[in-house]
Design a protein that fits this description.
It comes from Balneicella halophila. The protein is an alpha+beta fold and 150 residues long. Helices cover 34% and strands 41% of the residues.
């Protein structure tokens, strides 16, 4: 097994670092956003999501969900530095250990820069198979975080 580190591009969010931090450091708020957004998602897109993920539950510090053909897993917030950093870790049910860091830097009152860093342990074969997908995925996650109405 070898450690794989992927770092997103730096993204801009039109909100204060405090607003972004307060949202991303509380899985209950993330869950509420999913529920609100569900009304605006076309039925066919909801169907695609439900084909893969179901039973999403959350409290302030963790979320759990079932991935079809995989099982129940989740994420926990394991470290917080107010308005600067949030560290997430996959739970023990995950077949692959994953740690995510969201780093925030406030440039101005409504200008926060965000970067996502992912660490995971993969064997050499898996590393070769998923390297490009991980690069793309960490950037897609960072981009998705810029679209949240903080």
């Amino acid at each position: 097994m070898s450690l794989v580190k992927k770092v997103s591009d730096i993204k801009k969010i039109n909100a204060s670092a405090e607003q972004v931090y307060n949202f991303l450091s509380d899985f209950e708020k993330v869950s509420e956003l999913f529920e609100e957004a569900s009304d605006r998602i076309p039925e066919e897109e909801k169907q695609k999501i439900s084909e893969h993920i179901e039973d999403f539950t959350a409290d302030k510090d963790s979320c759990k969900f079932t991935i079809k053909n995989f099982g129940r897993t989740g994420l926990s917030i394991v470290d917080r530095e107010p308005s600067k950093t949030i560290k997430y870790q996959a739970d023990s049910n995950s077949p692959v250990p994953v740690t995510l860091w969201v780093q925030l830097v406030e440039v101005d009152a409504n200008d926060t820069r965000l970067r996502v860093t992912m660490h995971t342990e993969l064997n050499m074969m898996m590393k070769m198979m998923v390297k490009n997908k991980l690069d793309k995925g960490v950037n897609q996650l960072a981009e998705a975080l810029t679209m949240i109405p903080y």
